[in-house]
Amino acid sequence: MRENVLRELARRAASDLEFLRRVRKDLHGTLARNGYYLTEGELRLVEDLRRRSAGMSDEDLARTLAANLQGRSGSPPARPVGPSWRGTGPARPARPGT
To answer: Has residue 79 been placed in a domain?
Structure first.
């Protein structure tokens, strides 16, 4: 999931009420017209937020998004990497006689 894309989308929705209104009315069309091409997972997350915030006014949702964006400037810490086959053996076989 691309945190920077979702953060930019939330930032735009929080600061541009007309954009937020269009997103709430026509999510897919508005995203496409504004150059937001989300992955399936990102789209599910946005659709879920849209469903959960359906009872909120545009202004309340914009304030909530803005409040949640404050203090979030970077990406979360990277997840630990799982074991890998790389680095577990010699890069190439030893030469005979060495």
So the answer is: no
**Between helices 58-69 and 3-15, what is the axis angle to 10°?**
130
Does any domain span residue 42? yes
| pLDDT in 10s for each residue of the chain, 98 residues | 889 999 999 999 999 999 999 999 999 999 999 999 999 999 999 999 999 999 999 999 999 999 988 865 554 444 444 444 444 445 555 667 66
Question: Domain count of the chain?
Answer: 1
Domain membership of residue 83 (yes or no) is no
Tell me whether residue 18 is in a domain.
yes
Please give the biggest Cα pair distance in the chain: 78
Residues 6+ apart with CB under 8 A from 2: 39, 42
